[in-house]
Amino acid sequence: MSVFSEFLIKWNGTDYKITNLLVSQTVGDLKAEINKQTNVLSDRQKLLGLKTKNGQPVTNDTLLDDLNYKPNTKIMMMGTVEEKIEDVNKKPENVPEVIDDFDIEKNVEEIAIQNREENLAKISRRVREYKIHVLNESRPNKKLLVLDIDYTIFDHVSHAERGEELMRPYFHEFLTSAYEDYDIAIWSATSMKWIQAKMEEIGATRNPNYKIAFYLDSGAMISVYTAEYGLLNVKPLKVIWDKMPEFYSHKNTIMFDDLRRNFLMNPQNGLRIEPYKNAHLNRDKDKELYRLSIYLKKISKLEDMSEIKHKYWHKYI
């Protein structure tokens, strides 16, 4: 009887290897093995992106032989161990504040970074070689909203059984409002597979009230060197502008990201959003997307949005 060489499960930042399962066994058997390694009960496990060969929904009774799974491909899992469920709504004590970004102001070095030949050459290479994952056609005379995923619209660290539990409050309402004036793009510093899995999980790929125009992943990013912070990976919007010049430019694009360094190459088009963390504690009080929907509506009529200092968006509304 043939066996799968290995299943790779990614959960809580750690990779787990599941080996020696027969192709005649089921997804339920796979979950039982996952439970042994992670202590997450089978009925609390959600395996993202797992599909059958004929496109049917995956159930616990699905045979492993019927899965559309390539060996050594990672499967992202969501799920919570029983001990965590009991404490999930308790506010942690004595947790130090973690600062995972630096405060970049518009300075001489930043201007130089934008115009350095080596950085422009990297962008040109991305424009030539990178293929944007298009979901829906761009619309004429619409501005462009570029969104990050992790910590911007999704808490990717906290435990949960369903993606909706980690989704930022007002997410669907926010995109519904933005879609009236903006095409919507998702740019995450992860792989395309994880982008598709997360957006599917939170119900953003087939929402009747808005459409996502396209995805970009880590392959569209470039590395730049700064004297103060060393080598950084950034998201140059010029990749989009040069690949879609008939639709988008620096005048009609705004990017939301929880890390300011991600828009180092285009600071006038970036807005640093407050990171969304500890979803179980903050889902009833986080109103960042609600307020930003008001801001987007107010600036949507401007001819050149890059002339605004998005850093002060709170004052603008």
Q: Can you describe this structure?
A:
The chain is α/β, with parallel strands linked by helices. It folds into two domains: 7-87, Ubiquitin-like (UB roll) (Roll), CATH 3.10.20; 108-316, HAD superfamily/HAD-like (Rossmann fold, 3-Layer(aba) Sandwich). It contains ten helices and twelve strands. The chain has helices spanning 27-38, 82-87, 108-115, 117-129, 171-178, 192-201, 238-243, 279-282, 288-299, 313-316, and strands at residues 7-11, 14-18, 46-48, 74-78, 133-134, 143-147, 182-187, 212-216, 222-226, 230-234, 253-257, 270-272. Strands 5-8-7-6-11-12 form a six-stranded mixed sheet, with no helix packed on it. The chain has a four-stranded mixed sheet with strand order 2-1-4-3, with helices on both faces. The protein is globular. The termini are far apart. Mean pLDDT is 87; it is low at 94-100 and 105-109.
Strand content: 15-25%
The CATH homologous superfamily of the largest domain is named HAD superfamily/HAD-like
The N- and C-terminal alpha carbons lie at a distance of 65 Å
Assign the CATH class of the largest domain: Alpha Beta
Major sheet attributes: 6 strands, mixed
Number of strands: 12
Globally, the shape reads globular
CATH architecture classification of the largest domain: 3-Layer(aba) Sandwich
Radius of gyration, CA atoms, in whole angstroms? 21 Å
The helix tally amounts to 10
- Unreliable spans are 94-100, 105-109
